[in-house]
Specification:
- The chain folds into 2 domains: 25-219 and 434-490, Rossmann fold (3-Layer(aba) Sandwich), CATH 3.40.50.450; 238-430 and 507-551, Rossmann fold, CATH 3.40.50.
- The longest helix has 22 residues, at 220-241.
- It has 24 helices and 15 strands.
- The protein has 553 residues and is of the alpha/beta class.
- It starts with 5 loop residues before the first helix and ends with a helix.
- Helix 8 (176-191) links the parallel strand 6 and strand 7.
Length: 553
């Protein structure tokens, strides 16, 4: 039996494309300072917390004519948070740039995420080792983790490990929380005159780590194309069988970028958008009523089938559910030591809960299907909150729609037959083989991260822009992490965090989705993207997301 599939073998051979400036060679780069930066919000508080790294200039790299000598540097790299396609190529790009600058340079990978640098668990990369992971999905090269780097003790332990390995820079590959940690670590290292730099790389399939300088987070392209293929397959099946309504929940913890991009690629009958629900203050009943209206109209046309896309974080954006969840978080914390409650049967627990909720929350709680009530009372996360990702929102909608359709049928207002299928697409997209775009983009981010290190910068996020153009026209540079930060309440305290980018209802992308909704709802305009293509015409293999194309129109 072969150890690798034919596609694996071919992908290992793929040479990712680089921006023209980086192709010229790491030691020929010139660093051009651009405008000074400020935080997006809460400027004075952020400036006070980041006295040593606040207000730095944005930078861009251009190729120079003369090669400069590069002193020996040891670098550590951390994969942080959930997996995203292309992470291995960030590490490969970093490694190749580091070795190109000086063959004596070393790259250490900290194992299991940020805990690796705290506990001193690491490996040293070699050509033979890293070559097995080029252009592949997953984070198994060194593993990932969700430990936060935020305490004095953690910073001191990290410094001890870096000193032991003679590390002069650390690269943290992660999302908004992970890069917030990178900013905190960078500030601490400068404040304590350690001489150790910290650089971040923008990762998350959720797509919510973005701004004018970071056009897209890596992994979003591959994940959404993977989900779009699966949705397209289901749409083809629905249009063939013509008997099921498919409710498809898609990963994306807070923002709806993944759901919206998948909808733009496939044109389903209904796509819910969490940010729209929140801004319009839509109740659960209104959401269900709106969907039932479409289902009834399609039934009158003889179409008892359809496709619904549901963002994973929807339930937290419904105002009344948000209030209920907050009340339940407080309540269940108080009931943890209540023996009567802990030993009660599910129905008895529901009654105890209702007796302690106010009237509106009690009515809403009891109106929910038994499955959802139980999921709302499941074990809390480490912070004592409902684990929203475990709530099967798609099944909640199905049950409530079925109940409402039965009422409408009794009133003679629904003539159809409602049969359902529920799906959740999440892990299917997080470790897929990276698309050519993500393979190229990630490799460029890693290569570029070392360029930032080589110029002595710290507290920066690796930035590669102009991404709707061919890779050779991409613009490489760096963005100070503090410019993306604001103050938010976390676990009862105001803390500096990188601001999440949510869907804007007045933005081009939402408007594009909204413009096609009525047509897609009743007329089956399904698109079938098919599998990600790695070989063939560039317009098929190297295309970017629809979101990115619309944003640059």
């Amino acid at each position: 039996m072969k150890e690798l599939s034919p596609l694996q073998i071919e992908r290992l051979k793929y040479q990712p494309k680089l921006p023209e400036s980086l192709k010229a060679g790491i030691n020929k780069l010139v660093c051009v300072e651009k405008e000074k930066t400020e935080a997006v919000k809460d400027k004075e508080q952020i400036k006070e917390l980041f006295k040593n790294t606040y207000g730095q200039s944005r930078v861009e790299f251009v190729s120079g004519s003369e090669a400069k000598a590069s002193e020996v540097k040891n670098v550590g790299v951390i994969l942080s948070g959930g997996q995203a396609p292309g992470g291995h190529n960030v590490v490969a790009g970093l490694y190749d740039a580091l070795k190109q600058a000086n063959p004596e340079n070393k790259l250490y990978g900290f194992l299991g995420g940020p805990s690796g640098i705290i506990d001193g668990k690491y490996i040293e990369f070699t050509d033979e080792f890293i070559d097995k992971y080029r252009n592949t999905g997953g984070f198994d090269i060194i593993g990932s983790g969700r430990t936060k780097l935020e305490t004095e003790e953690q910073f001191k332990k990290s410094l001890d490990v870096c000193k032991k390995l003679n590390i002069s820079a650390v690269v943290i590959i992660g999302g908004d929380d992970s890069n917030t940690n990178a900013a905190l670590l960078a500030e601490w290292f400068v404040a304590h005159d350690t001489g150790i730099q910290v650089i971040g790389c923008p990762k998350t399939i959720d797509g919510d780590l973005k701004n004018e300088q970071i056009e897209i987070s890596f992994g979003f392209d591959t994940a959404t194309k993977t989900y779009a293929e699966l949705i397209g397959n289901i749409q083809r099946d629905a249009n063939s069988a013509k008997k099921y309504w498919h409710f498809i929940k898609i990963m994306g913890r807070s923002a709806s970028h993944v759901a919206v991009e998948a909808a733009l690629q496939t044109q389903p009958n209904i796509c819910l958008v969490s940010e729209e629900v929140e801004e319009k203050k839509m109740s659960l009943g209104q959401i269900v009523e709106n969907m039932c209206n479409i289902i009834c109209k399609r039934a009158e046309m003889g179409k008892n089938f359809g496709i619904v896309i549901v963002p994973e974080g929807l339930i937290e954006f419904i105002p009344e559910m948000k209030v209920l969840i907050s009340s339940l978080n407080d309540l269940t914390h108080d009931l943890e030591k209540d023996e009567k409650y802990q030993n009660a049967q599910p129905e008895e627990k529901f009654q105890i809960i209702v007796s302690k909720l106010d009237e509106n929350n009690g009515k809403l709680f009891m109106s929910l299907p038994t499955l959802i009530k139980s999921q709302l009372l499941m074990d809390r996360d480490p912070h004592g909150n409902v684990q929203v990702s475990r709530i099967e929102t798609e099944k909640l909608l199905i049950e409530m729609i079925r109940t409402r359709l039965n009422e409408l049928k009794a009133e003679g207002k629904y003539v159809g037959k409602f049969s359902d299928q529920a799906h959740f697409f999440g892990y299917e997209g997080r470790c897929a083989f990276p698309s050519n775009f993500d393979a190229d983009y990630c490799y460029s981010l890693g290569f570029n991260a070392f360029a930032l290190i080589n110029f002595g910068l710290t507290g920066y996020l690796s930035s590669v822009k102009n991404l709707i153009k061919p890779a050779n026209e991409w613009v490489a540079g760096g963005v100070p992490l503090t410019m993306m930060m604001n103050m938010e309440k976390r676990h009862g305290e105001m803390k500096p965090v990188i601001q999440k980018a949510l869907i804007k209802l007045d933005g081009k992308v939402f408007k594009a989705l909204d413009a096609m909704r009525e047509e897609c709802a009743l007329n089956d305009r399904y698109l079938f993207p098919g599998a990600i293509q790695y070989f063939g015409p560039t317009e098929v293999c190297d295309q970017t997301t629809v979101t990115l194309q619309i944003e640059h129109q």
